[in-house]
Write a structure and sequence with these properties.
The chain is of the alpha/beta class and 242 residues long. It is built from seven helices and ten strands. It binds 2-amino-2-deoxy-6-O-phosphono-alpha-D-glucopyranose (GLP).
């Protein structure tokens, strides 16, 4: 694992955005896995600036987002789709057909997940996956004790994660209890991964994920086994690393 430590959350976003742009320049039809969450906001801002500034063509880029809440529609401001549309997709020239998202309103959620795996496979697999990390070590919505062999599926969210994410909702009770997420094996199949973290509140889990045992109780610890991963962190989230 290559680790890059920068000053603050804005620099984490800028560094990761630059790495993504370099990959798009190398492969115009890059298959890009995307993530949501607060850490990603500066990343998308920088990515948009770079794409515009350097006139990067996204027409052939295909994206697959990691996860979505069950029961929230795409028009719902709290859905990950809405957030992606607002923070990224509406600001760049991408083809709608190249944007792939799990549908948390699908009638048959198992089938939705099965089809998503198939779509990723048909696209030739994910070239580059962007990842954040939850304070309990979750990646995507793969909570502690998710199987390292898991693929895209419906999951129950832990109370911990629901509480953490309640800042995006009017109250804790409004946070969905279920979500659809790419599995850990799906994430690990990406040819390259960029993991982003920022802020002191992530320091403990970053230390456990990188220095602790590789174990299913800390899903992010599996990333240590990936052969092509860059971890971009600010000083806060890296503060407990040796
Ligand atoms: C959510 C997402 C994760 C993300 C995590 C951390 O739970 N499902 O993909 O990594 O939040 O988010 P934040 O960057 O807001 O700390």
């Amino acid at each position: 694992m290559k680790i890059v430590i920068v000053k603050n959350s804005k620099d984490v976003g800028a560094k990761a955005a630059w790495l993504v742009v370099k990959e798009i320049i190398k492969k115009r039809d890059l298959v890009l896995g995307l993530a949501t969450g607060g850490t990603m906001i500066p990343f998308y801002r920088s990515l948009i600036d770079l794409i515009k500034g350097k006139k990067i063509e996204l027409i052939n880029v295909r994206t697959f987002n990691l996860d979505e809440y069950v029961g929230l529609s795409r028009e719902d401001r709290r859905s990950y789709y809405y957030s992606m549309k607002k923070n990224f997709f509406s600001k760049v020239a991408m083809l709608e057909k190249n944007i792939n998202f799990l549908d948390g309103m699908a009638r048959n959620l198992d089938l939705e997940c099965e089809n998503y795996e198939k779509k990723i496979e048909d696209a030739g697999g994910i070239d580059l996956q962007i990842l954040g990390i939850g304070r309990n070590g979750h990646i995507g919505f793969n909570e502690p004790w998710s199987s390292f062999r898991s693929r895209t599926r419906e999951v129950f969210l832990s109370d911990f994660t629901r509480k953490d994410n309640s800042r995006f909702f009017s109250s804790l009770s409004k946070v969905p209890k279920r979500a659809l997420t790419m599995g850990i094996a799906t994430i690990m199949s990406a040819r390259k991964i960029i993991l982003l973290a920022s802020g002191k509140s992530k320091a403990g889990i970053v230390h456990r994920a990188l220095h602790g045992r590789i174990s299913e109780d800390v899903p992010a610890s599996v990333l240590y086994k990936h052969h092509n991963i860059i971890f971009v962190s600010d000083k806060g989230s890296a503060s407990e690393l040796d």
